[in-house]
Amino acid sequence: MALSSGLFVACDEDEAVLTEDAVPVLAGAPLEDDADDHDGPPIDTQDIVHVEGADDGPEVFVGVSGLGQAEVLVEGRSGEVALVASELDPEVLRAHGAEPMLDFKIADKPVAGTISSPSGYGHYCSMLYPSGVSVLGWDAAGNDPCAVIIANNGAGGTIQRAGMMSAAGANQVVTRCDGNVAFAARGLGTGPLSTNWNNSTGLNGCIHTVSPLALPIFEIGPLPTTATVDPGTGVDFARPPITTLDTSMFGWGGSLTYGSSSAQLVDFKGRRRQTLTWIDDHSAYDLGVARGTETYALANGNVIASRWLDTKCTGSDGPVQGEVYIRHTVARNPSTYNETFVAAYFHLEYLFPRAPGADVFAGDILGHTGNMGCSTGPHLHFAVIRETNVADARSFTLQVPFGVGNNGYPYTIDPWGWQAPTGVDPWGSRASSGGAFSVNLWKPGAAPDTDTWED
Ligand SMILES: [Zn+2]
């Protein structure tokens, strides 16, 4: 087998090409080569070479096991070697982050790692000056309202929030000011911004957080449309550190207290679920689906982590679960107004390995679902975390690992968009240490079918 320059394995074993710095490793390594775990012929460890060596990412190896087939192995954190077999087709190559190769043409790709910003969006800017004076500016045409504020009011302020607003569609705005004063508005275009700006007259220390109700950037769902999906849980917005929710914020009377026998859980539409089996303190959708189902990147993005994590959990198919975190950035000009979301996929039994920072493209296969880690049945743990213009910060950078287990991600949002009967997302409307406006991130027709879990 010839090793030369290039990045990936060509169709023909004789023409296999790998990275220039590829060095044979793993010969004789203790592979867990269970024939039931993959489709291809057994791996010849003679052919296994090290192809990617991210400093803090998983070790990735590729072996050529036969004409037209590649085997990809990932060395797990605890030393196990998981094994993925794949047909060597363009889709899989793309899933592996393969660059153009000598003997294999890949279909035209979009610009790496970026999302085409949808049209019809402008920008807003919430600036706070040391005197306590705040300014809210907006530009539905997509110009630079922060620059205008600075031009008009001086440069001594600090941008508290800056992001996207819908020029003509629905936006929601929460304003929080000194003295624990908070108020919200929802409406079309610049209407709610104007409302809250006017209502903040005379108040000090105001910070305005704005979000469109819809920002269609996700091109496909995380699972095949043909998969049978059984939703098991919803996003839980009622959890510590804010243990009591004023439910009048989403159309109910009274309040809900975390840990009490009253309805402390709300689903992704703000409905009480105390009679159902929502998992407490759970920061994701659990989508029940058969083992081995492909899971996809929702949109173009960049890998934060694609790794194996030893959860130490028992009772599942194994304690080590595949985890993928993809960052999706809606790039704006200027970048002050970028909006960023992270999609997380857990319990995978197969993982297509990628180094941190690698580009992925909408529809790329990230791995195969399973029943790994802290899991009681085959499912995909699917979460979306907002990183920009969250309830208490202009931005937040997800660190992996964050929190404990699969829960505790503070800015998890519902990618279908918070649709409480009235009012606003309680986590966006409070001066909480976590939470963010939900936004419907699906392009038309892209969202997984929710019929089975809607009332
Ligand atoms: Zn889960």
From TrEMBL:
Top-level division of the source organism's lineage: Bacteria
Pfam annotation, one family: Peptidase_M23
Segments traversing the membrane: none
InterPro entries according to UniProt: Cell_wall_metabolism_enzyme (IPR050570), Dup_hybrid_motif (IPR011055), M23ase_b-sheet_dom (IPR016047)
Domain M23ase beta-sheet core: 282-388
Protein name: M23 family metallopeptidase
